[in-house]
Design a protein that fits this description.
single chain; 826 residues; alpha/beta; Rossmann fold; Calcium-transporting ATPase, cytoplasmic domain N; 8-stranded mixed sheet; 7-stranded antiparallel sheet; membrane; translocase; E1-E2 ATPase; ATP hydrolysis activity
Length: 826
């Protein structure tokens, strides 16, 4: 119905508010205005990506180097701009997409004021207004029914209950529900933020940051480095000052600049800045790939959470089913006397069913019946009189010219009014309902019905049962099968009858060959620990309230589960926010999409396997490449400690570590991170990464420190001489590069594929770069010559031996430890 047209409503004796009363309410803040936030603000996104611990450490180090005038050694600081830019741009893109999804049509409504009907916008409704609700309207404010003309509401967005609700005079109606059929005059009882829907979503408006195991591990390292960096940086500066003759000499000669640069070389090496950058890049690329499949990732970190999900709570309506009703079939009753005299009883009964459903404003079930029968070629017949459906009667009727009257309504209502014993029919009805069907009955009487004083003829004969059901998504069964294979426990949580939900769960094989266990949520314990124990044996929950959905997620957290929650209604918002990963459908309520980390734009449940698989790829590959970065952290910390304790010049420059890190860590890691990987997530990410990084990092540190202590004596270098110190640092850079290639080779295993070519290409690139003048000059690289070749070769051989020995020692120790532990059966 077009709300902008001149409204024509039934006559009412109510006068409604005067314009003065309306103005007073508007002035008093009692108009129907709500400040809605559909997603994070731009300021929140920028703040979250700029003000991080990592950015703070890198920025401070960069400022220190720039203060010395050695800008070439400050190029590592550009990682801040890249890392921050990626995060901001990706999340702003997600915000724009979400905001477009959340735009609602600014509908107009009809109110009754001063005895006249007038059209006003949504925000023009005030408290105590007399508001007309018509088919197709979304209820804009809480109200109470004054007069009803067959009003029927869909409250599924609020309650999760998919059945439509008939309203009578005095019944409340809540904002957010939708008028399916009929109309009513209502009195507004709450407006704006005081409405039911607004109150329910207020709890969901507080932003909750996604917790990422990967970022937690990186932040743990950064926090540890923060406590280590500050004192170590001070000690490094002090030790480097001593190597150039003390503070007074350093300041008077300007040597303090080189001391600061050397200290920063140690600090920057300890921080896995490339790992932070690569994590953001990997998350962003995964988000872009998912976007091509109509899956919007609102927070980059949620991509990683996908890999850890082991419990998936599904809202039935809008997820497993598409929220619509479909006509299934007509079941003729076989009892004596139920066949039509013409011998064509099913066709006659089906035609009567069409005419019964063909009201002026049919409800959702009536529309489904009409759509189904039109597809079979049925059209409207000639009806002599009609009794429309009434929520009080629970039945409707039509009368034909031949004198026959047909009734349609709830089976239990019709059978209770008819003569005879109908216990077997009720049992049949209950069995069909238990199979997930909505069941109606049609009956035929030979008497004429009076539309003015309608009454059910007790002699009417039950003719047929009409079966309708929610439309199950065609992809639901296959998607649930994939989750079962991946070890993800799925549960269906709904506001509907648990028997009906259980039947639908069985149809989509929620639990495979095993019959799903269904339970009424009204029987759930309130204690969270007891609820957690109960949920272990339950697959389907019906009659679930919004607060219970949230409690269910909390109970699953008690047992350490990583929970994902899907939904589309306002009633799902609290649970989606509480879950580790909230997934909203594209047609969801704006508040629900605002709190979700992932939005399935086209509302297709079948995208979820892609979402989880992409998360697993990110997590498995990031664990592989994180080992590369932490090796650098370990050897930088140990080298810095050795420099402080032995008071030697720092073995290399910040630009050396930038060059080596790019070729042996950064660029190879980026390629490795994008490789296919479907390994399921295993707890203990940080522990495994550290176990790999310690022997490699220790080996590099020992090799570099030994070279710094021994080579000056072997080669006759005086480290107080700038040229000799440059040669020593260039040699150490070669040692770090070669060992870095060995670490890369270990991480990239197996090498009998493109991975081996990857290692060879970057090793060759590093060597070639030393012979390119611009590259060699910018990064202070030197090709060894004369005696330096022999010394460097010996140092490399010894370094490789130390590298191999460290890994052998760790492998043997790990074997002894694991051999001593009892085997645990899973």
């Amino acid at each position: 119905m077009n709300a902008n047209a001149s409204p024509t409503m039934p006559h009412t004796t109510e006068l409604g508010l005067t314009e003065q009363q309306v103005a007073e309410r508007v002035a008093g803040g009692l108009a129907n205005t709500v400040k809605t936030t559909t997603s994070r603000s731009v300021a929140d996104i920028v703040r979250a990506n700029v003000f991080t611990l990592f950015n703070g450490i890198i920025l401070a180090a960069m400022v220190m180097v720039l203060a010395t005038g050695s800008w070439k050694d400050a190029v590592f600081g550009f990682v801040i701009l890249i890392n921050t830019g990626i995060g901001i741009v990706t999340e702003l893109k997600a915000k724009r997409t979400l905001d477009k999804l959340s735009i609602l049509v600014a509908a107009d409504y009809v109110v009754h004021r001063e005895g006249r009907d007038k059209t006003v916008p949504h925000d023009g409704i005030v408290l105590d207004d007399l508001l007309w609700l018509r088919a197709g309207d979304q209820v804009p404010a809480d109200a109470a029914v004054v007069d009803t003309y067959g009003l029927e509401l869909d409250e599924s967005m609020l309650t999760g209950e998919s059945r439509t609700v008939r309203k009578r005079a005095g019944d409340p109606v809540y904002s957010g529900s939708t008028v399916v059929s009929g109309m009513a005059l209502t009195r507004v009882t709450a407006v704006g933020e005081h409405g039911y829907a607004a109150g329910l979503t207020a709890q969901a408006k507080v932003y909750k940051k996604t917790v990422s195991d990967l970022n937690k591990g990186i932040n743990t390292i950064l926090k540890f480095m923060t406590f280590l960096v500050v004192p170590l940086c001070a000690l490094l500066i002090w030790s480097q000052m001593q190597t150039v003759g003390g503070w007074s000499v350093a300041i008077s000669t300007g040597a303090w600049r080189q001391a600061v640069v050397s200290a920063v070389a140690g600090v920057v090496g300890m921080i896995p800045e490339g790992l932070v950058l690569l994590t953001s890049l990997n998350f962003a690329i995964a988000a872009m790939r998912l976007a091509r499949h109509d899956t919007l990732v609102q927070e980059l970190e949620s991509v990683e959470t996908l890999a850890r999900v082991d419990c998936l709570n599904l809202d039935k309506t809008g997820t497993v089913t598409d929220g619509g009703i479909a006509f299934d079939r007509v079941v003729m009753l076989d009892s004596t006397g139920c066949n039509d005299d013409s011998g064509n009883g099913e066709h006659v009964a089906t035609q009567a069913l069409y005419d019964l459903a063909n009201e002026e404003q049919p409800n959702g079930t009536g529309q489904a019946v009409l759509a189904g029968l039109r597809g079979k070629g049925f059209t409207a017949g000639t009806v002599a009189a009609r009794v429309p459906f009434s929520s009080a009667r629970k039945w409707s009727a039509v009368r034909y010219d031949d004198g026959a009257t047909w009734y349609m309504g709830a089976p239990e209502v019709l059978l209770s009014a008819l003569d005879g014993d109908h216990a077997s029919m009720l049992a049949q009805v209950n069995a069909l309902a238990a199979d997930g069907n909505r069941v109606l009955m049609i009956a035929r009487a030979a008497t004429l019905i009076d539309p003015e004083e309608p009454a059910l003829d007790p002699q009417a004969r039950p003719m047929a049962l009409v079966l309708c059901a929610e439309r199950i998504r065609t992809d639901a069964a296959a998607t649930l099968a994939w989750f079962r294979e991946q070890g993800v426990r799925c549960r269906i949580i709904s506001g509907d009858n648990p028997v009906t939900v259980g039947a639908i769960a069985a149809k989509v094989r929620l639990t495979g060959d095993r019959a799903p266990v269904a339970m009424d949520a009204r029987q759930l314990p309130s204690d969270i620990d007891e609820l957690a124990r109960t949920l272990e044996t339950v697959d389907v929950l019906g009659r679930v309230l919004p607060d219970q959905k949230k409690a269910i997620v909390q109970a699953l957290h008690v047992d350490g589960h990583v929970v994902a929650m899907t939904g589309d209604g306002v009633n799902d918002a609290l649970a989606i926010k509480e879950a580790d990963l909230g997934i909203a459908m594209g047609n969801a309520a704006p508040a629900t999409k605002a709190v979700a980390q992932v939005v399935l734009v086209d509302s297709k449940f079948s995208h979820l396997p892609d979402v989880v698989a992409r998360g697993r790829q990110v997590m498995a590959n990031m664990e592989r490449v994180a080992s590369l970065f932490l090796v650098k952290t370990v050897y930088s910390a140990l080298i810095s400690l050795g420099v402080v304790l032995t008071a030697i010049p720092f073995p290399y420059l910040p630009r050396h570590i930038t060059y080596i890190g790019a070729l042996t860590i950064g660029m190879p890691a980026f390629i490795l991170a994008l490789a296919p990987n479907t390994r399921r997530y295993l707890p203990g990410f940080l522990r495994r990464v550290v176990r790999f990084a310690l022997p490699g990092g220790t080996a590099v540190a020992l090799a570099v420190l030994c070279a710094s202590w021994v080579l000056p004596h072997v080669m006759g270098w005086n480290v107080e001489n700038a040229a000799d110190l440059t040669s020593l640092r260039a040699t150490n850079a070669i040692i770090v590069f070669v060992l870095g290639v060995l670490v890369l080779a270990r991480v990239a295993q197996p090498l009998n594929s493109w991975r081996g070519i990857l290692v060879a290409v970057f090793a060759a690139a590093g060597v070639i770069g030393m012979f390119i003048p611009f590259v060699a000059n910018f990064f202070a690289l030197e090709v060894p010559g004369g005696r330096e070749i022999s010394a460097t070769a010996v140092a490399l051989l010894l370094s490789a031996a130390v590298f191999a020995l460290c890994h052998v020692i760790v492998a043997v120790a790990a074997g002894i430890i694991s051999h001593g532990k009892p085997t645990r059966q899973r």
